[in-house]
Amino acid sequence: MDSLINTYQQSIALVEMSLVCAAALVWLLQKGFQQALPMSAKVILLLIIANLFFWPLGLNLELPLSAYVRGVIGDLSTVTVLLLLSALFVRNQSAPWSVKVAIGLVGLCFYPFALGLGMFDPYGWGYSSVALLIAVLVFALLCAIAKWNRGTWIIGLAIIAWGMQWHESTNLWDYLLDPILVVWAIFGVVATIMKKRKEKARSGYLFRPG
Prior knowledge:
- The protein is mainly alpha-helical.
- The chain folds into two domains: about 1-75, no CATH class; about 80-210.
- It has ten helices and no strands.
- It has helices at about 1-30, 40-55, 65-75, 80-90, 95-115, 125-130, 130-145, 150-165, 175, 180-205.
C-alpha cells in the first residue's frame, strides 16, 4: 500500500513539473507576440508541451524530461505551481506589491533559520503548528481584502492539498513556499521600486521649469 501511494505521489509530482515546464514555455512564447494568444491556443500548447515533458521520448534518456528538471530544481510549492498556471489564463490579477513584499520578507526570514542559523527551526512549525495554519488563513484573508482573489483561492487550494497529503511531504511549508517563489517576489518588489523611480524622474523632467 505504501509503495502504491509513493508511486502515485511521484506521478503527481511529474505531472505538476511537466505542467510547470509547459506553462513557462508558453508564457515565454506569448511574450514574443504583440497580441495575447487565444485561450484555446494556450490550452492546446500547454497540453502538447506538457505531454512532451511527461512521457519518455527516447533520445537515450531513461526518464522523462520533467524528472530531470525536478532533479535540478526540486519540487515546487503548490502556490508556485498554481501561480504560474493561472498567470496564463487569468488577466488583471497580478499579485499586489504588498503581497510580494510579505512573501519576500517571510522567505528571507524563513530560509536562513531553516538552514541552521539560530537556535530554532521554523520548518518544524509546518508539521503540527496550529498557529502557522491560522497565520496562513489570515494571510489569505488579507489577500482578499487587497482584492487579490486569485491569491486567496491559491492559498486555499494549497491548504487542501496539504490536508490530502498531495505530495510526499507532510509539512505545510512545502505547499506554501519555495526558493523560486521568494526570488519571484523579491524581483517583483525591486522591479516595482525601479518603475516608480523612473516614473517619478520622468514626471520631474516633464514638469521642470523652463
